[in-house]
Amino acid sequence: MKDVNQDVTPEAPVDDDFLAGLERGELLYPRCADCNAALPFGAASCLHCGSAHLKWVASAGEGSLQSYVIYHRSYVPGVEAPYAVGLFQLEEGPRLLARLDLSGQDRFVRGGEFAARVQDGQLTFG
Ligand SMILES: [Zn+2]
């Protein structure tokens, strides 16, 4: 029987600076180097002044849960189901997808406050 998990591994581009931050234990997000506006992840230029000079800065690591999904089958090699992925809005503004710690299931409400934890280069909100 064909292993369907081998064909669905996501290959999303992720910025090297963001990944380097996670390796150091930091959650980084993009800001404009000219007007200092917080920018969405993946922005190629500033939405406020149009500058292409962006920088990565450390987040305080606090965010609110906007939405989430619980996977009952693993789509990520080395990650056992069930696991959850949430859409978080950082206090600084940008939104990002990250693992959601399932141990706090009673708090899974829209707008619930979560803290980022970076360990071994992996980002989880819990
Ligand atoms: Zn700007």
Find the count of extended strands (DSSP E, 2+ residues).
7
Strand portion: 35-45%
The level of helicity is under 10%
Largest sheet: 5 strands, mixed, barrel
Strand order of the largest sheet: 3-4-5-7-6
Shape: globular
Cα-atom Rg, whole angstroms?
16 Å
Low-confidence stretches: 4-10
Mean of the pLDDT scores?
A: 88
Q: Could you say which small molecules are bound to this protein?
A: zinc ion
Number of domains: 1
Assigned CATH class: Mainly Beta
According to CATH, what is the topology? Answer: OB fold (Dihydrolipoamide Acetyltransferase, E2P)
> How many helices in DSSP terms?
1
The quaternary state of the protein chains shown equals single chain
Through-space gap between termini: 37 Å
What string, H for helix and E for strand, traces the elements in order? HEEEEEEE
What structural category do the secondary elements indicate? mainly beta
CATH A-level architecture: Beta Barrel
